[in-house]
Amino acid sequence: MQTVAIIGAQWGDEGKGKITDMLAEKCDYVVRYQGGHNAGHTIWVSGKKTVLHVIPSGVLHDHCTSIIGHGVVVEPENFLKELKNVQSITTVDHKRLKVSENATVITSYHRLLDAARESQGPEKIGTTGKGIGPAYEDKAARKAVKIKDLLDKDILYKKLSNGFAEKKVLFKELYKIEVPSLEEETERLYQLGQQFKDYICDTFSILDKAISQNKKVLYEGAQGVLLDVDYGTYPYVTSSSTSSAGILTGAGNVNGKVDEILGIVKAYTTRVGEGPFPTELFDEVGSYIQKTGNEVGATTGRTRRCGWLDFPLLRYAIKCSNLTSIALTKLDILSNMETLKVCYAYEIDGKQVDCAYPGIDLFKAKPLLKSLKPFKDDFKTNEVSVELKAYIDEIEKGLGIPVGIYAFGPDRAEIKFNKTYF
Ligand code: GDP
Ligand code: IMO
Ligand code: MG
User: Fold this and answer.
1) Which residue out of 13, 19, 21, 42 has the highest number of ligand 1 atoms within 8 Å of its CB and is therefore the one to mutate?
2) Which of 43, 115, 160, 416 falls between 20 and 30 A from 154, CA-CA?
3) How many angstroms does the Cα of residue 265 sit away from the middle of ligand 3?
4) Regarding the domain delimited by 104-195, which CATH topology (the fold level of the hierarchy) does it fall under?
């Protein structure tokens, strides 16, 4: 295969970082195409943990070039902090990390607006507070600062001024918060831009050339399909296209196709922030999964809500993103439990619903659960128990696509491939 996409099939935190890192071993480019540092992608290599936010998760492989595409929103201060951290682990310079000149900049105004809305606004989304929504709003409103604008102070000032008159009224009159002046923000962003100017380039052409030379490319999605601004559980979503559709608009030339769209599925379901969650567990089973799975947000440190695997939700994600196979993660967390259930359908207003189509009200969905025999695997050998095999079979049968990978621990070695991707 030449091109593979990694797509979160639930509400994020499915283990995309780990799977991207594994597949990056055999590919030439890893490309982020949407989202920003709201993402937290965790990689464990030989007992050392690295959390990546906006830098692609292939960066720990020296042979691999990482691309931050134009669909991404980049907060320069956080980017530089992350870059320093990665540089303390391995050699990363502008030759193998490229930032699109057309990516959108997250400014202080976006971060402050996000925080003000969450703390003072009428309805809380439970955002990561990183300024993601407001940055994408400016992009759609054609008022965004692009990464290339950081390199010219006059242009930067002009771009920042664009729309500031409106924002100033919001900050001053509605939210009553102090914000940096245009001059201060211009200076701050300009100085930050100077520190990574060598990394800024036309990533479209780099990718175009790579594809035409048959290089192997991995597209790394952030968040999950159910957080997609169009397909997700709106308004409790993020502000970008997290489904595979986002690759076409946010990465550049993909030759019109991606060979394999790998959906990353956690063996149970989690969600951070507000919004409906049909299989959420409020009992001791839910807290057991939360504790054993260490389900704490990699970006905000918030406790993740936990529940059983949700087939209607996954069937919908498969349709939205055209998923062709699954990487099933965190099976070790379900091992040794006393009960094991999956949600095979919902009951809504007395009717059975098999797929979480957007028209339905997920707040009203009552999960119809099937109990399976719990498995007790220690994953020390290649053998899987009859019970674990039955769990995987149930998933493949219920979803209609194969489990190509399964993972049973955070480290690189804790993985098994049933299918070859590169
Ligand atoms: P991402 O946002 O999709 O990359 O996922 P996160 O990194 O936010 O959250 C996934 C968490 O699960 C991280 O702490 C990973 O190290 C961890 N993880 C990934 N796969 C497995 C697995 O198979 N078993 C266990 N126990 N942990 C895993
Ligand atoms: P990764 O890539 C889980 C959630 C937030 C909130 C909603 C909107 O690590 O899977 P935003 O700050 O994006 O405007 O918040 O989206 N959210 C995530 N949840 N994993 C993520 O990323 C997330 N990125 C955003 O919790 O509910
Ligand atoms: Mg995460």
Assistant:
1) 42
2) 115
3) 13
4) Adenylosuccinate Synthetase, subunit A; domain 2 (1.10.300)
For 284-322, give one letter per residue: b (16+ CB within 10 A) or e.
ebbebbbebbebebbbbeeebbbbbbbbbbbbbbbebbe
Q: Find the catalytic residue in 37, 41, 70, 110.
A: 41
CA-to-CA distance for 260 and 149, rounded, in angstroms? Answer: 35
Tokens of residue 123, six digits: 């309805």
Question: Looking at domain 265-417, which CATH architecture does it have?
Answer: Alpha-Beta Complex (3.90)
Nearest residue to 17 (alpha-carbon basis) of 53, 68, 63? 53
Q: What is the SS3 assignment for 199?
A: helix
Supply the residue whose CA is at minimum distance from atom 9 of ligand 1.
Answer: 13
Please give the chain's pLDDT, 422 residues, in tens: 999 999 999 999 999 999 999 999 999 999 999 999 999 999 999 899 999 999 999 999 999 999 999 999 999 999 999 999 999 999 999 999 999 999 999 999 999 999 999 999 888 999 999 999 999 999 999 999 999 999 999 999 999 999 898 999 999 999 999 999 999 999 999 999 999 999 999 999 999 999 999 999 999 999 999 999 999 999 999 999 999 999 999 998 777 789 999 999 999 999 999 999 999 999 999 999 999 999 998 888 999 999 999 999 999 999 999 999 999 999 999 999 999 999 999 999 999 999 999 888 999 999 999 999 999 999 999 899 999 999 999 999 999 999 999 999 999 999 999 999 99
Alpha carbon of 21 to ligand 3 centroid (Å): 14
Is it true that 104-195 and 265-417 share their CATH fold?
no
Using alpha carbons, select from 236, 207, 241 the residue that is nearest to residue 221: 241
Q: Is 13 a catalytic residue?
A: yes
Ligand 1 atom closest to the Cα of residue 333 is 26
Helices and strands (DSSP H and E) totals, the chain: 13, 20
**Does the reported pTM lie above 0.70?**
yes
